[in-house]
Amino acid sequence: MHDDLERAKEMMIFDGYTCVITLDGVAFKSKEKGLQPLLDWMYSGNKYTGWRLCDKVVGRAAAFLHIILGVREIYADVISAPAKQLLEENNVAVNAAEIVPEILNETMDGPNPLETAVENITDVNDSIMAIELAIKRMNK
Predict the structure, then answer these.
(1) Residues of the domain holding 81
(2) Burial group, residue 108, by CB count within 10 angstroms (0-12, 13-18, 19+)
(3) Which residues on adjacent β-strands are paired with residue 23?
(4) pLDDT digits (tens, 9 = 90+) for 86-116
(5) What is the CATH number of the domain that holds 48?
(6) What is the DSSP letter of 110?
């Protein structure tokens, strides 16, 4: 794992961040849950091609956003097997503490709605619309 990614992982562990994106010692950090940090960075207008990213939980929805951001390597505390496969197919190096079959909802009694929204998506560009629609449904 690259030094930038190690430092980002330390920020997550010791400073309580949920998501950290970094390159050459520059880091953007967030304590927000879910996909919000990724969406914020995606819509910020900044370019993150080649950056490294640490995230608490990565399912396919987050993986699509990582690909759109252009990150080169990620670390996840927990990643789903389908997300890992998607990232690796798109040349993103994956490091993870735990690989699980799927990401569950908050009550742990079914699949996460964002994962359900992208389960049949294969085109990265289609994933954004599916994710945004799912978020709108969840916030009603």
Answers:
(1) 3-103
(2) exposed
(3) 26
(4) 999 999 999 999 999 999 988 999 889 999 9
(5) 3.40.140.30
(6) S
